[in-house]
Amino acid sequence: MSNTGEHSYRLDEGKIRSRLGIIHAVSLPSNLAANFEKLATAESKNKSELFREMLTAYERRHREERFHELQRYGVKKARKKGILTEADVDKLVFQGR
């Protein structure tokens, strides 16, 4: 483990770890790198903050897409069984109670 200033770093499974988190190197084409830097500056964020926000937004969008995919699947299955309305769902839910 080497110590540089106030941060300590160590190499772990090919990644550099610091007290603040894991440091990853990301390769971008020069035009994307320039756009990324401009966006960080425009948003008054450092590149790590911007990347974290972008990744969080991507994960949220992915979860929403998966949820909608599952909804479409459920609707398709329900229609095949003749379940077409909320009232049909209520009947199924409460029929055994």
Structure explained in plain terms:
- The chain has 97 residues and is an alpha+beta fold.
- The chain is built from three helices and four strands.
- β2 (7-12) and β3 form a beta hairpin.
**Poorly predicted ranges (pLDDT <50, ≥5 residues)?**
1-5
Radius of gyration: 24 Å
Tell me the number of helical segments per DSSP (H or I, 4 or more residues long).
3
Query: What structural class do the secondary elements suggest?
Result: alpha+beta
Beta strand %:
15-25%
Helix coverage percent:
55-70%
Order of helices and strands: EEEEHHH
- Work out the number of β strands: 4
Shape: elongated
Largest sheet strand order: 1-2-3-4
Mean pLDDT over the residues: 85
Compute the separation of the termini in Å: 63 Å
Question: How does the major sheet shape up?
Answer: 4 strands, antiparallel
Quick description:
The chain has helices at 30-42, 47-80, 86-94, and strands at residues 2-4, 7-12, 15-18, 21-23. A 4-stranded antiparallel sheet has the order 1-2-3-4, with no helix packed on it.
Question: Key terms for this structure?
Answer:
97 residues, disordered N terminus, four-stranded antiparallel sheet, alpha+beta
Topology of this protein?
Blueprint: E1 2-4, E2 7-12, E3 15-18, E4 21-23, H1 30-42, H2 47-80, H3 86-94
